[in-house]
Amino acid sequence: MKRRLILATGNMHKVGEIRSLLADLPIEVLHPAELGNPPHLTETGETFAENALEKALICARATGELSLADDSGLVVDALGGEPGVRSARYAGEGATQDDLIQKLLREMADVPDDERTARFICVLSLAAPHGEVQRWEGRVEGWITREPLGVGGFGYDPVFLYPPERKTFAEMEPPEKNAVSHRGRALAQFREDIPEIIELFDSD
Predict the structure, then answer these.
(1) What pTM did the predictor assign?
(2) Quick one: which of 104, 51, 40 has its CA closest to 78?
(3) Which of 15, 27, 71, 122 lies in disulfide reach of 48, CB 3.0 to 4.6 Å?
(4) Are strands 167-168 and 160-162 parallel, antiparallel or unpaired?
(5) Distance in angstroms (rounded) separating the CA atoms of residues 85 and 137
(6) 193 is catalytic
(7) Domains contained in the chain, number
(8) Which of 24, 70, 71, 114 is the catalytic position?
(9) Whole-number Å distance between alpha carbons of 95 and 92
(10) pLDDT by residue (tens digit) across 14-47?
């Protein structure tokens, strides 16, 4: 029997990635909208961990079910950690992927090649209606390119170069990216804890 896990996000790209990464597990990953009357998810924290917990708790309390939230973003050293928790809002509300990328490249126009270090960070929070159950974090180091490369992925993937492959995330095939991405690494830790998590489902 598959246990239901509610994914507390409005980003359907993330839903697709997480479903793919957990497809072989006895877990049915559901988006809140699939339950009807989805809760409004907010992000008022100053860290990825705070935002992930906030979204997970909102969803768990609204649905009465175990909920998993992801908060992730791009941290650029030359920009003092920006865009960070504001990654999706870096170019303003409603900004497109191209808007985000172009703003980032403008801000980094004068940054030398050897100072364009950055990392993607992902924090996962699993919550029940009574509070947070567990948390995982994944990160991946890379560099910001001077122009977008590749057509895959989403968000800042076209300008995030992963050095071991000498490709941006947007140039990598989905399984290739998922094996090394910040979200993939956080979910790998989640998978390691599946036996304990299954017990939570059964006792919840």
Answers:
(1) 0.89
(2) 104
(3) 71
(4) antiparallel
(5) 14
(6) no
(7) 1
(8) 71
(9) 6
(10) 788 888 878 888 888 888 888 777 788 888 999 9
